[in-house]
């Protein structure tokens, strides 16, 4: 198969391999002759399309023809424009799809004293202000001897904030960092402060609420003579506590998995994203939890998600989430639809609607049980939506803060970064998997070569359970664990 027509109503097909100018190719029961070379992941017109007529892919409009497009033509940014605007109205039209039949699974994880499950047992140093980033990095470097027994690593997450912020930015930094401190993958946490920042230790403790003194320690560098020596002392206490935990069998229903895409291409919505969608359907059918974010990459495909909100209250929260993000764009003088990156476009994604319809495939077909604010923790099992931008590092940090044990990250172009939670890179095409095997953990390009999506979803489930049981991702093997905090306001 060289072309794929995703939905019966589509008037374009996607090239699964390069098609030369003049080649005649079959798609389902029709043939089409390429009027120019069609690169893998790009679209070809299956019929004559009039100027102003919708371009239909995934069974949804993904844009409008700028000019008449002849059958066999390359369909992309040169002859297609977005159909989106800053305003839209939504109606609740509830749809329910059958759940897959699944066999209950388990993994070997850690059981915390408060009853939560974890898939890693690490020591984390969380700076409350960027001024102490270097101290945190020195503490990591000089205390690697504490990584032994069941303690699997020691990490810190530098960032530039915690001071010179006001209002919502200050609150978001505080909220995000406190959420990281609570994350179950950290068996012990050292909260590192300077002492004069506007994110004071008292503020941070108030945001954190209750905590276990054995698991969370605090150090204010200006209040001790030698912060490195004092940090070493506290980390030894944390390592002793974290080392008391051992892996044990835990039901997969306790897993929380974030879902994200980046460096997308024309195959993202055909191979990797629907594979993740099949995984999500299987995990939620077991009683587990998945979390989908990247609100701007829902624009143009909102109704695919909104129809699956389990009730009108969840629908209203979802509409509010999308409209708030549109207002965020407009308030900064930006249009809502100029989202696909140069890499996206080079990979075959033409408009934001095209990108969004592919992006939401990660959500599968399950009911949406809740809609979360930025860095808000998951409380309901099932498929959740999480407010956050499309930026890879910001949204992956957001997913970690919401409680994701690990993150499934689909990509058609490749990227080496990792969030604090183990970040599984899933390639949309086999060439990427083979060329960047030091980045990519799982190949979904096999779907374009004939593997059924259900089988790919089962294969991904098996891999996720191995990662949850301790198998390292490629990003973890390279020590890639980073954060980025969402910022909107002024810096003093």
**Mean pLDDT over the full residue set:** 95
Give me the count of strands.
23
Helix content: 25-40%
Strand order of the largest sheet: 19-20-18-17-21-22-23
Structural class determined from secondary elements: alpha/beta
Q: What's the structural domain tally? A: 3
Query: How many helices?
Result: 13
Question: Any overview of this molecule?
Answer:
- By secondary structure, the chain is of the alpha/beta class.
- It has helices spanning 133-142, 167-182, 201-208, 227-242, 272-285, 302-306, 312-331, 342-346, 352-359, 392-401, 430-435, 453-468, 474-477; strands at residues 3-4, 12-15, 24-27, 30-33, 43-45, 54-57, 60-65, 74-75, 80-81, 106-111, 117-118, 122-127, 154-156, 186-193, 216-220, 248-251, 256-261, 289-292, 368-372, 382-386, 406-411, 423-427, 442-443.
- It is built from 13 helices and 23 strands.
- The strands form 6 sheets. It has a 7-stranded parallel beta sheet with strand order 19-20-18-17-21-22-23, with helices on both faces. The protein has a 4-stranded antiparallel beta sheet with strand order 1-2-5-8, with no helix packed on it. A 4-stranded parallel beta sheet has the order 13-12-14-15, sandwiched between helices.
- α1 links the parallel β12 (122-127) and β13.
- It is globular, with a radius of gyration of 23 Å.
- It starts with a strand and ends in a 15-residue tail after the last helix.
């Amino acid at each position: 198969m060289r072309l794929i027509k995703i939905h019966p109503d589509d008037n374009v097909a996607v090239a699964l391999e390069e098609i030369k100018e003049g080649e005649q190719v079959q798609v389902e029961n029709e043939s089409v002759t390429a009027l120019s070379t069609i690169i893998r992941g790009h679209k070809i017109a299956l019929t004559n399309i009039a100027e102003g007529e919708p371009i239909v892919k995934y069974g949804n409009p993904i844009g409008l023809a700028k000019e008449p497009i002849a059958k066999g033509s390359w369909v992309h940014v040169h002859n297609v424009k977005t159909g989106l605007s800053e305003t839209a109205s939504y109606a609740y039209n509830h749809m329910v799809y059958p759940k897959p039949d699944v066999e209950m699974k388990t993994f070997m994880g850690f059981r915390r004293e408060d009853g939560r499950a974890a898939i890693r047992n690490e020591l984390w140093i969380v700076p409350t202000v960027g001024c102490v980033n270097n101290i945190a990095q020195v503490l990591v470097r000089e205390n690697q001897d504490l990584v032994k027994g069941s303690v699997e690593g020691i990490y810190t997450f530098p960032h530039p904030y915690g001071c010179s912020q006001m209002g919502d930015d200050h609150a978001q930094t505080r909220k995000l960092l406190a959420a990281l401190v609570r994350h179950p993958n950290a068996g012990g946490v050292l909260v590192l402060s300077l002492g004069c920042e506007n994110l004071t230790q008292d503020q941070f403790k108030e945001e954190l609420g209750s905590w276990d003194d054995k698991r969370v320690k605090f150090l204010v560098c200006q209040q001790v003579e030698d912060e490195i020596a004092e940090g070493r002392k506290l980390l030894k206490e944390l390592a002793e506590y974290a080392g008391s935990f051992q892996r044990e069998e835990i039901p997969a229903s306790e897993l929380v998995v974030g879902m994200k895409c980046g460096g997308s291409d024309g195959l993202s919505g055909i191979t990797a994203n629907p594979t993740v969608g099949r995984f999500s359907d299987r995990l939620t059918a077991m009683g587990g939890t998945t979390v989908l974010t990247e609100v701007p990459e829902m624009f143009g495909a909102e109704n695919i998600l909104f129809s699956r909100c389990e009730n009108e209250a969840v629908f209203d929260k979802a509409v509010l989430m999308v409209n708030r993000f549109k207002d965020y764009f407009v308030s900064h003088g930006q249009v809502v639809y100029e989202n696909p990156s140069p890499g996206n476009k080079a990979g075959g994604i033409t408009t934001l609607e095209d990108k969004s319809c592919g992006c939401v495939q990660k959500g599968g077909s399950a009911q949406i049980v809740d809609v979360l604010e930025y860095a808000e923790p998951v409380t309901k099992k099932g498929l959740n939506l999480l407010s956050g931008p499309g930026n890879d590092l910001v949204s992956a940090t957001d997913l970690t803060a919401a409680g994701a044990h690990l993150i499934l990250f689909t990509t058609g172009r490749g990227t080496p970064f990792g969030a604090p939670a183990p970040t599984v890179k899933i390639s949309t095409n086999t060439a990427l998997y083979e060329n960047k095997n030091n980045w990519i953990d799982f190949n979904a390009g096999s779907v374009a070569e004939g593997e059924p999506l259900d089988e790919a979803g089962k294969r991904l489930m098996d891999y996720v359970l191995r990662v949850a049981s301790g198998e390292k991702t490629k990003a973890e093997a390279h020590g890639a664990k980073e954060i980025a905090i969402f910022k909107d306001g002024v810096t003093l």
